[in-house]
Write a structure and sequence with these properties.
With 390 residues, the protein is an alpha/beta fold. The protein has a single domain, classed as Rossmann fold, CATH 3.40.50. A ten-stranded mixed β-sheet has the order 1-2-3-5-4-6-7-8-10-9, sandwiched between helices. Helix 3 links the parallel strand 4 and strand 5. The longest helix is centred in the middle third of the chain and has 18 residues. It binds alpha-D-glucopyranuronic acid. The site of alpha-D-glucopyranuronic acid has 7 residues, from loops.
Length: 390
């Protein structure tokens, strides 16, 4: 196979026509807000069939076990809990652990950000009391702490929840024999779920838990994710409208970036390098992006009218910052139809000039990462869109 060479030349971005989120597949227009739910269902089903695969409902035996509570964590500023979500009856069943920090002085249920992490909950903060996940025992405590500024988040009145993505499915092409896929009989079909589907399913199961926890304001839970886990946050937010806010950090191809631009990572490249992420049908669109019945602006439109935030980084060209902006921008008509503003920017804003309309967007200096700058903007955005505790 020829070596993949990414295009970073705006002049070589092909001409393309995006599928219209406000036109049904039969060609009729979505005339008013009342009809959106029908078109929404249609778009959702297209994403299932052609891209992320079908996702099962919660398992019958699912139950929650609080395994650790510390009311005086982080020098007395936080309540920390570790909750194990068992996906079936019995101790051998697959499980995921949610690490939760809530502000100590909360006098009511706390609004919360939740996101999957790459290498284990113990990598998100160096505190040795956090359980070390045996599945990721080689990853050092606190190695990802800069991406999870828990003290900063708590100081603004928000809680923070995180889950190791490998609890749901290891990130490798291993035939879906393990992780939560193993809980279900696998349909040998082109729309069977892949790893991103399984990760998103886990975020949704975390939401099931938040609904049951009185210390958490489950009407103000924001799903957040970086990169492959940003693609995941978007898919979870599309699938589950209980997420009141959704944040994509540098999610790129298969996330917020328009596939048809073929800038940086492409559909063909992502399916070759990560054949387990999407459903098999998606591979039909390798080098055939124009044949896709959907593009990523429609994924963002599935959040409407909920606030959604897309963030890029200047040097993260692989993720196509402009394509991420345009993904957000072209979701705008759906928001307007539903009576809110959309993305209040005609063109891509300069670095460090966030747009905080109902669809939010920023591009910051630097590379592919999650930084304090990003988190501060997410919290500003959440404050502005009613997530701050009254
Ligand atoms: C790779 C991949 C991207 C992904 C990124 C990440 O670069 O090609 O699609 O977003 O990894 O998850 O960090």
């Amino acid at each position: 196979m020829a070596e993949f060479v990414a295009n970073y030349d705006e002049d070589k971005v092909p001409d393309y026509t995006l599928p219209d989120p406000l036109v049904f597949e039969d060609g009729t227009a979505v005339q008013n807000a009342a009809r959106w739910h029908k078109r929404r269902a249609e778009i959702l089903s297209l994403f299932e069939t052609h891209m992320y695969g079908k996702m099962p409902a919660a398992t019958a035996g699912m139950h929650f076990e609080t395994r650790y509570v510390n009311d005086r964590a982080l020098e007395g500023t936080a309540v920390r809990r570790e909750v194990r979500v068992h996906f079936a009856a019995g101790a051998e069943a697959p499980w995921m652990d949610i690490l939760i920090h809530l502000p100590k002085d909360a006098d009511g249920p706390a609004p919360l950000f939740v996101g999957l992490n790459f290498n284990g909950n113990h990598t998100t903060h160096p505190d040795p009391e956090i359980t070390l996940n045996d599945r990721a025992a080689n990853a050092a405590r606190g190695q990802a702490a800069s991406r999870w500024p828990v003290t900063r988040v708590l100081a603004r009145g928000y809680g923070l929840g995180t889950i190791y993505c490998g609890d749901l499915d290891p990130d490798c092409d291993d035939g879906f024999q393990n992780g939560v896929h193993a809980l279900f009989e696998r349909q040998n079909a082109g729309d069977a779920w892949g790893t991103i589907g399984a990760w998103a399913w886990g975020l949704i199961r975390a939401m099931d838990y938040f609904v049951a926890d009185e210390a958490i304001d489950h009407t103000r839970v924001a799903a957040m994710g970086h990169s492959r886990l940003g693609k995941t946050a978007l898919w979870a937010g599309a699938r589950d409208e209980r997420f009141a806010l959704v944040i994509s950090n540098n999610s790129g191809c298969g996330g917020a970036a328009l596939s048809r631009r073929r800038y940086g990572e492409t559909v063909g490249r992502i399916n070759t390098r990560f054949p387990h992420w999407f459903c098999d049908h998606f591979k039909q669109y390798n080098e055939r992006e124009d044949a896709l019945p959907i593009d990523q602006h429609q994924l963002i439109a599935l959040m409407a009218p909920r606030p959604v935030y897309v963030a890029s980084a200047e040097r993260d060209r692989w993720a196509d910052p402009k394509g991420e902006f345009l993904g957000a921008k072209h979701a705008d008509p759906v928001y307007r139809l539903l009576g809110t503003d959309g993305l209040n920017a005609e063109n891509m804003p300069p670095v460090h000039e966030p747009v905080t309309s109902r669809i939010g967007y920023h591009i910051r200096a630097g590379g592919h990462d999650v930084t304090d700058y990003d988190w501060d903007r997410y919290m500003d955005f959440a404050d502005e869109h009613g997530h701050k505790r009254a």
